Hints:
heterodimer, A: mainly beta, B: mainly beta
Amino acid sequence: GDSVTQMEGPVTLSEEAFLTINCTYTATGYPSLFWYVQYPGEGLQLLLKATKADDKGSNKGFEATYRKETTSFHLEKGSVQVSDSAVYFCALSDPNQAGTALIFGKGTTLSVSS
Amino acid sequence: EAQVTQNPRYLITVTGKKLTVTCSQNMNHEYMSWYRQDPGLGLRQIYYSMNVEVTDKGDVPEGYKVSRKEKRNFPLILESPSPNQTSLYFCASSSIPGQSTTDTQYFGPGTRLTVL
């Protein structure tokens, strides 16, 4: 079945460092790909999405490119801030499996210190 | 404001005492679902509903029930809670997945449940 694998955390960075969180997926169809962020004590918020190969999603300085050839959707940010400390989830939505809708990775905790 | 609300936000209960967690959305979404989040496991889907009176099991439905009598509400029912249901629960809603490029799921703030 479909699955998402993302790098284990926690990831600890200093402010203004470059961030990469790796995400790869397995899907039978052509999924949409998402990054969700969960700030402490809050629910999940959509950070960015891409619906087809080579699309780049971007938001709040974060970017991710849908790479079909490597089945990847790595999250990047050029200069992280303390306020970016959160748990980040990579997810996919497979149109061939409408019921399950979103399949999540296990999440990566990011901690940014000043 | 478009939102998904859940109540209660925090609940401590004892084994076997029936409880209901409510979920409501104001975006007229057809699709609603429940997830549980556990450390090291990410989010796993419990149940989902494609529309009123249409519900189906997700990946981890054992010990849970749901109902969808109205489009906006999707309560999660634990008839006889057990300690292994201690978790963080999220409700989500969207338009029908796969039918629109705007089928982003919106999540509620979460309900932290502890079963003693």
